[in-house]
Amino acid sequence: MGHYKASFKIIISSLVFFILLIFTFIQLDKVFSFVQISKALSATGALFIGASFSMSWLCYYFDFVDDKIHYRKHLGLVGYFYILAYCLSLLIVDPERYLFGFKENFWTADFILGLVSMTMFTFMALISHKKAIVILGAKRWRKAFRIGFLAWFLLVVRAYILEKEIWLEWLATFDGFIPPRLFLSFFVIFILSMRLSIEFSKMIKKQQISS
Question: Is the domain 2-210 a CATH 1.20.120 member?
């Protein structure tokens, strides 16, 4: 059964990856390069992590999704490994900056925000095992996963710093395809907003009960 689930995840994630790879091929003037693979890896990872984070608010607002909550872990892990593959791909896409220039560029926003976010995601991946619940306790274990929202937000900030001019130019003209990182950032902000809406909803319900 476990082998079947693993194969299913590989097939689905590979399908998403290849669809996004085709999109990047079209978006980059139909010129194939390793940059497209890197971008497709990043987008695939972001979509799966987004799907994982979405399970919380989907289950909160829609009862029929409750029995699907167990997919959150699997979606998150698939997304994490794609993001990890994207980080490694940067060593090939831009070795002068991310490999040979690692020391010189370490204190830039690009490196700091990226490394902090990946450290948080790695921590989440490590505690996704059932043994971590015993070690941390169920309550602290659930709270620990909230750092993922901060990690995701930091990646939006990183994307904005790296592509601010490109984003502003597109928003001013709406010419051509939306920049992929801008689209993914809108996607992240939407999901984070929905997650925050849960907290506001709980606060309102508590006030109504107390009154």
Answer: yes
